[in-house]
Amino acid sequence: MNLFQSLRQFVLGAPLDPMSRKTRHSLALMAFFAWVGLGADGISSSAYGPEEAFRALGEHTHLGLYLALATMVTVFVIALAYNQVIELFPTGGGGYRVATRLVGPYAGLISGAALLVDYVLTIAISAAAGVDALFSLLPVAFQNYKLVSGLGVIVVLLILNLRGMKEAIKILLPIFLGFVITHALLIVYGLLANAGNFSTLVPATIEETLRLGNSLGWVPLTAFLLLGYAQGGGTYTGLEAVSNNVNVLAEPRVATGKLTMLYMAISLAFTAGGIILIYLLWNVQPVEGKTYNAVAFGAVLQHMGFDSPLLHQGALLVVLAFEAGLLFVAANTGFLGGPAVLANMSSDSWLPHQFRYLSTRLVTQNGILVMALSALAILWWTGGSVTLLVVLYSISVFLTFSISLFGLMAYWWRNRTSRGWRRRLALSATGFAVCATILALLTIERFTAGGWAALLIIAAISGLCVAVRRHYDWTKAAIRNIDAQYEELDFGSVSTPPEPDPRAPTAVFLVGSSRGGGMHAQQWVQGMFPGHFRNFVFINARTVDAQSYGGAQSMQALEVEANVALSYFVNFCHSKGLAAKSYLSFGTDPIEGFVELCEKVRAEFPNSLFFTSKLVFKRDNWTTHMLHNQAALVLQQRLHAAGMQMVILPMQVEV
Fold first, then answer.
1. Cα→Cα distances 395→96, 126, 185, 385, 454, Å
2. Residues 6+ apart with CB under 8 A from 197
3. What pTM value is reported for the model?
4. Structure confidence by residue, pLDDT tens digits, 170-228
5. Scanning 163, 221, 342, 423, which has the fewest C-beta atoms within 10 Å of its C-beta?
6. Where in the chain is the domain with CATH 1.20.1740.10?
7. Could you confirm whether domain 27-390 is CATH 3.30.420.10?
8. 646 has which bridge partners?
9. Tens digit of each residue's pLDDT (9 = 90 or more) over 313-329
10. Which CATH superfamily is domain 486-653 in?
11. Residue intervals in the chain for CATH 3.40.50.620
């Protein structure tokens, strides 16, 4: 192991065996850990969602009572609707899979693009809001350092997630629990301490509502309340995370997913609704350089007896540190969900296939890097403004929500004979109405305040995906044409083929999933070296990607498919009276897998020459290099360096 590999292993950890059942079991998340890893995004939104909603009310703060009630009801409506997604799509994919299967591929594309923006903004806004919480304890002069601090948080989370999903969650677990305990205590105390004011709060709210209705008009008042409600849309972000990542949950996945969703709904409804009520009861007013939560909890702590400056500042430091910590845990959700969406879209050829591949730590490393770099860029572009990020965030989230819930409505309408379809349709329709309303209000009212940017980014990603998909479709069609040329090959009638002779010249073919590529190489070698090679060996190093690692059945299907593909080549050679053999391996790095197999073959057949095919495009450019791996060239260099000779056979496609 060289210095670079040693340093890499020290930072990221030792490689994991993807074929080990123990590995799969150790990585799967039970409901509690899923609540931490996936639910943190939802509950952490209580650090900025309620504030944005309450701020939108301006001087009419009494109307916040409606927002508190609407917030708690909305959380459960969306959570219950998304339980249906977990039931219908237990392999994960969430909003992307729902839209693709139930509405259509292009609806899925838009939903997937919005989800990617959502998860990038999950990282960016959580880092920014967490830094805001911490800097609420510092003098205003320190505000200039918030952006750099937010960027640093993202870099640290990037390293944690490259080590592996569960490792990141274990490190962040104490922070999550600290937030839940401290905020629950403060909310309960804050409500009980002012419980007597509820008797005056309700009549005051009704009186304020009647006064505004008579002066402004009921339609403008309703629009005003809906705008405040929509502005707090960031509160509900994160609820979709479980349905997007069902594949990482412990068995039984559906039950685990529903339990996780219940944890999320209860904790978010209590925290977000409770915080808005605290704002009301404690008459919170904006203070420069401080979040509303810092002002509200500061007042509650002082009432609890933390009244000396040192004691009060220390207690508030603990509370806001846990709040900031939870926001950083929430940012971690973007590193879990974003790469999963990239992998799902990659498997459907909307994105480069490299996003399906796992690292040695069994995480979608390319996806994690893309999410981190994108979050760094958007945080830098927005200057860390939580208000602007919330607008971008909410539009992307509610676009996905609306498409997904519309898909559920269409599904239950088409399946009207199924049991309980009316109840499920009504729930989906209610969720769709809520989410579509919030989306429309945010888009119209906040279009010039950043809404245009969210729509432009989603449109740009969608356009790029269409171009990528078109290229892959052309390539697949060209490969099918090549495969078709070898479908009519006649198998021979030799029933007892010779056994391989280790001392004889051996042609070793590095093959993939395409029969045409393997047969092209085998036929070319026989034509160029008639009668020279006595043994024909076929090797395949299959890549365990994010899709195949979704569960035990997927892994078994991958193994069966690989063995069937290799058996075809071996059986063809046997039918022609040729000695043949095959080798198969599984791993996250196909290059390393092939090199190891080549060394194994050379040890058994010293007189070996290696062959593989490579797609050659008539119009070769940087796009084809990005969308298609250059494994053949890299393998040739590695084998030559190890003293093994390899010949690359070009296979031209008209793309």
1. 16, 16, 33, 16, 7
2. 281
3. 0.73
4. 666 788 888 889 999 999 999 998 877 777 888 888 888 888 888 878 888 887 787 77
5. 423
6. 27-390
7. no
8. 610
9. 888 888 888 888 888 87
10. HUPs (3.40.50.620)
11. 486-653
